[in-house]
């Protein structure tokens, strides 16, 4: 694995939270999701947070990164080789981790971030969420996922997780490993 870093605009020793964002790379989703991704990105920049994400130049990934960068955030992209081969890497990255596959990408994002936020997304986002939660259930780490439940996007999944517990497929309450933010205000309160 190779790491390339551009010049850091922040002073050494300055404490900055690193927030991993899991989200859609689709450009064909409802505008409300784009709006909420940009709002979160802008907040991250204004509050001097690091964005840790998958490094794509498409969908909510690029929207959150662009808004964060415009407000001064540092951007860390964890980029699998298939994304590079397709020429889909964002040009906003301050730090780039090159990975061989999605498994490495998830491990690095988990390692580098203090907390993970799941914006609306597809199977890739679900894969990332469950990677974090599964590791926490076994005790590999104590990091949580925050589901940003824009327009009730995550309601079906949250109901499914409750069903797992009710049917005794969880050894302990699964909400030990995640939190839910139904509004932007709830989300930023959890991230402060």
From TrEMBL:
EC number: 3.2.2.n1
Endoplasmic reticulum in keyword set: no
GO molecular-function terms, A-Z: AMP nucleosidase activity
Keyword Hydrolase: yes
Enzyme class per UniProt: hydrolase
Keywords for this protein: Cytokinin biosynthesis, Hydrolase
InterPro entries the record matches: LOG, LOG_fam
A Gene Ontology cellular-component term: cytosol
BP terms from Gene Ontology: cytokinin biosynthetic process
Reaction catalyzed: AMP + H2O = D-ribose 5-phosphate + adenine
Pfam families documented for this protein: Lysine_decarbox
Family under the similarity heading: Belongs to the LOG family.
Protein name: Cytokinin riboside 5'-monophosphate phosphoribohydrolase
Annotated organism of origin: Phocaeicola coprophilus DSM 18228 = JCM 13818
């Amino acid at each position: 694995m190779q790491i390339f870093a551009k010049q850091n605009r922040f002073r050494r020793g300055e404490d900055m939270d690193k927030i991993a964002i899991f989200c859609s790379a689709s450009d064909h989703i409802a505008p409300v999701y784009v709006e909420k991704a940009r709002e979160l990105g802008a907040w991250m920049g204004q509050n001097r947070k690091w964005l840790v994400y998958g490094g794509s130049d498409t969908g909510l990934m690029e929207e959150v990164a662009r808004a964060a960068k415009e407000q001064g955030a540092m951007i860390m992209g964890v980029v699998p080789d298939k994304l590079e081969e397709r020429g889909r890497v964002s040009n906003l990255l301050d730090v780039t981790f090159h990975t061989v596959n999605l498994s490495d990408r998830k491990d690095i994002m988990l390692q580098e971030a203090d907390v993970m936020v799941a914006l609306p997304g597809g199977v890739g986002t679900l894969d990332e969420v469950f990677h974090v939660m599964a590791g926490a259930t076994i005790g590999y780490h104590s990091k949580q996922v925050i589901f940003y439940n824009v327009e009730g996007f995550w309601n079906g999944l949250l109901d499914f997780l409750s069903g797992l517990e009710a049917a005794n497929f969880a050894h302990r309450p699964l909400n030990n490993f995640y939190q839910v933010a139904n509004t932007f205000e709830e989300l930023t309160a959890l991230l402060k």
